[in-house]
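Friendly challenge for the regulars: who can give me the structure tokens for this chain first? No prize, just bragging rights.
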Amino acid sequence: DSKANKQAVGHGETNGEVLGKKRGRAGANKYKIWQMSEKKFEGMVWNVEFSPSGDVVVCCGNATFLCDHDLQVKSTLDNIRTPGGVAFLSDHRIIAICRFFDTINVFTSTGALIRSFSAGTSPTNVTVNSMDEIIVTDIGAKCLRMYRPDGSLIRVIPQEGTNYQMKWPLYLCVTTDDNIILSDCHQQKVMLFDFKGRYIQDMVLTTCAGNEVLRPHGVCTTVENDMFVVDNATDSVEVFSKCGTYIQTIIPPEKGCALKPKVLRVSEDGYFVVGGMTGIVRLYKFLNPDDEGDDDLIMMKEEVKR
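First reply, four minutes later:
Bragging rights claimed.
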């Protein structure tokens, strides 16, 4: 597997230039990204994550891999068959879903298995909040479950509650204030809960053209709580504010649908990883939105290489 050609990506075709510049009266995009590496894994990419040390974690096929920034595999987590989501506790222990056995597996930061515990009828994806509470989507029971790292259940957020209903709770993340963002692709929306699992609101996300996000899959937030959302219907990645206001399309649909985005994560130190239904994973680096011109592009390429 060789590195893909590096290219800058913004709103529009990926044509090798730094995109997101002002065009006519349109404002510049808030985010620009530069592709660093690409690798095709076996099977669909079910989830991706960044480790506290900067590794890229890829969940696909029948394995969960810890990779470097060239997306070369450094190690593989044991005891994972049919992986789901992965997340990290504050002490860097690894939380990984095994969908084959319907368990949550807890590993040391180096990947040694500590314990496994049952996590409902069909645990699928996972995130961890600032209190080290483990939050899991259960697509079998169509609910969310919250656990302590020792495996004890804190609470269940049921399928139905006051003013809400889950139909296909798939991907989730937490904001900086521990609110839970949940994508429900069957209802074409994301749902917002507080840190105790109390429903706050639904968000039906629409782009500047008024097009709705038809099948929201992977979702993540930045330190500013901007939401990056995969629209599985259009094979694009859209960006919204924490209030649901459209910001930009950061990865537009591709000709040939090589990637077909499904999952994504943004790191605190300026990286962005996307995993696709085709098994492709791409790692990007965020650029300064004010950078433009060939000279700047050359400098940024040299910076990424370093």
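The radius of gyration is 19 Å. The longest strand covers residues 32-40. Your move, everyone else.
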